[in-house]
Amino acid sequence: MAQRPALVCRLLASSVSVAHKAGKIIRDVMQKGDLGIIEKGENDLQTEADRSAQRCIVASFKNLYPNVNIVAEEVDKISQNLDVPADWLITDLDPKILDLECPKSLQDVTEDQVTIWIDPLDGTSEFTKGLIDHVTILIGVCVNDEAVAGVIYQPFWQNHGRALWGLVGSGIGGFELKEPPQTKKVYVTTRSHYDKAIEQFIDGLKPCEIIRVGGAGNKVLYILEGKAHAYVYPSAGCKRWDTAAPEAVLRAAGGELTDVHGNKYSYSKDNEKDPLNKYGVFATAPSYNHTEFMKLICDIQSKTVKSD
User: Fold this and answer.
1) Beta strand pairing status for 209-213 and 136-143?
2) pTM (2 decimals)?
3) CA torsion angle for 80, 278, 229, 45 (degrees, to 10)?
4) Cis peptide leading into 246, omega within 30 of 0?
5) How far apart are CA 33 and CA 37, in angstroms?
6) pLDDT tens profile 262-290
7) Which residues are annotated as a binding site?
8) Name one GO molecular function term (predicted).
């Protein structure tokens, strides 16, 4: 009798399958044209696509894995309503993921050790402006406090979507990992939350090329696809659901994601009440030395403090 795949592999396989369905839901909302925009706060929007995609994802996980902890971005009553259409309950598990060899350290993980961090639509501001290439769905599988598996899903990639996934200690899939340019340094940063602190950091990194795009998931994609050496965001602002999946995929590829001090963020359920990434986000490509990069960041930070 074949051994049942490890829980972490099943969760990742479910993440890929449910992301495909949530992506279709997002495309359908965009096609209908009525986005149902709600302003949650300053520079913080929500649409019908956010709400419906989250309901699909959370309901599917609750159905298959009732004891797993789930933290999703949207907390309003509509988004929390898990009475969803039958075709939104996804039970399929992506077979390619199930064939993965699960790392020994993750083979005996139980549901109560797992927290899934979900951003049903990362890049909502860009979505409302029609900048659909910036949009991703983020599903991060975390064991205890560590991001170990994740899916970054692009709903509008070639009009039908694609899932980029990673399992730390096992591998990546859905994309071809590419090297960043050797002739120049390229850094990716925020499009919609640009402020003086970020500008000062960017000035300290010069000479380099700066790319400003929306969505934390999208920025990490720039690293994975060889378009940037690092993702620089020196301010508080993004949350754990923005970074759990990107960190897992990036680490599975050999890269790193930390705060300004070079420390990893904790993704335990205890962080649900305060999910803010208070000390920024700094992510690097597999071929770009994260330790050396953080020394550069520390130097820039000290000069910035002195100038203030």
Assistant:
1) unpaired
2) 0.94
3) 40
4) no
5) 11
6) 999 999 999 999 999 999 999 999 999 99
7) 73, 119, 121-122, 242
8) metal ion binding
Q: Give the angle subtended at the CA of 191 by the CAs of 76 and 163, to the nearest 5°.
A: 65
CB 154 within 8 A of CB 161: yes
HSE (CB half, 13 Å, CA atoms) of 52?
19
Of 47, 115, 124, 189, the catalytic one is 124
Question: Which residues line the annotated binding site for Mg(2+)?
Answer: 73, 119, 121-122, 242
Domain ranges in the chain?
7-173, 186-307
Active site residue 124: yes
**In the annotation, is 308 catalytic?**
no
CATH code of 186-307, in short, is 3.40.190.80
- The residue annotated as part of the active site, out of 50, 94, 243, 284, is 50
Instruction: Decide the pairing of beta strands 69-72 and 38-41.
Output: unpaired
Which alpha helices (DSSP H) does the chain contain, by range? 7-32, 48-64, 77-80, 95-98, 124-128, 196-205, 216-224, 240-253, 290-307
Backbone torsion region of residue 147, taken as left when φ is above 0, otherwise alpha when ψ lies between -120 and 50, otherwise beta: beta
Q: Closest Cα to residue 155, out of 247, 265, 53? A: 53
Angle between helices 7-32 and 48-64 (to 10 degrees): 150
For the domain made up of 7-173, the CATH class stated in words is alpha beta
pLDDT, tens digit, for every residue of 84-120? 999 999 999 999 999 999 999 999 999 999 999 999 9
